Amino acid sequence: MKRLILEEKSLRHNLDIVKEKAGSCRIWADLSGDADGVGVVAMARFLRAQGIGRFAVSEVGEAQALRKAGFVDEDILMLRSIAQRETLDALLDLNVICTIGSLDAGLALNTAAEARSTVAEAQVQVDAGLGFGGFLAGEPEKLLSVYRNLPCVALSGLYTQVNGARPDGRDAAGQLEAFRQMVAAVGQAGFEPGEVYVGGSFALLHCPLDGMDAVRAGSVLLGRCRRVRGDGLIRVGYGEAPIQEIRWFPKGRTVGYETLVTLRRNTRVAVLPVGYQNGLGISRSRDPGLWAALRRWWRGRHITVRIGEQKARIIGRIGAAETLVDVTDLKCAPGDPVRFDIDPMFARDFSITFS
């Protein structure tokens, strides 16, 4: 059986770092992407036990799963700015806080709430440079139209998300400053912006949070985000699968997937029933540039697994559904468990276990 194992001790360690970085800011836990592959309900239960009760999702199904699992009173924010009536009705049924990233989305939400004779809660998204949605920083009049024209919507927050350095030279600090100017414009127009915050693990680790009421954190909880040297985070999540079979190959035999490897000695080879289709060897590309690409290439050629306390090297490239491991000098047998690093976001066909 293939298992994805999440260590609660490591999760608590990373959460402590998040809390320290957040300081006085409240924390929204970003559970989008099925909590980065961990499972939205399982992660929410862990976080609630640690005192975190505000969640952000990216799919209606994730909100439905949380409400069905008993997360009745917790705040749930939909990160997508949505204008489709059917989807908005589903979010209102679930008592989810909606995101408004355009006037069209705001008017659609206002119409849906008016039809129910109710007031919908929403937060306003500002695009400070990420490009995925929100009112463009530097266009405050468009943003203010939402505050002026939606009588059936209660606006409880204003947020943005930042990224790293951009070709136009606007780094994360510049993006945050552009966002603060939008917040100031709302106040100067006589409106209350509500909770002001920045989303994303990058901002949490890289940016000063002065003047922010909250911060949103997701992949940082797994230690699988754009890292800072000495940040203390632990990469959470590893895979486990049994050795499928063991074979001997003579010196000079070629083996492998796509790029063949010529064996330099008589080699004892263990076959693992996992490959890149299961997520083995797949990682999030975070850093641009030639040196970062070279580092990824080098790591890809030196991937190891663990059999008990023994380290074993993968032979050649990882296959689609199977992977070869050199166990010539190791004591092992078919059925022995093999552990390997795997990003939960890409793990497929694994049962999930919290340990």
UniProtKB/TrEMBL annotation:
Needed cofactors: pyridoxal 5'-phosphate
Pfam families given in the database record: Ala_racemase_C, Ala_racemase_N
InterPro entries recorded: Ala_racemase, Ala_racemase/Decarboxylase_C, Ala_racemase_C, Ala_racemase_N, PLP-binding_barrel
Enzyme class: isomerase
Keyword annotations: Isomerase, Pyridoxal phosphate
One BP term from GO: D-alanine biosynthetic process
Gene3D superfamilies reported for this sequence: Alanine racemase (3.20.20.10), Lyase, Ornithine Decarboxylase, Chain A, domain 1 (2.40.37.10)
Alanine racemase C-terminal domain span: 236-355
Name of this chain's protein: Alanine racemase
Source organism: Candidatus Flavonifractor merdipullorum
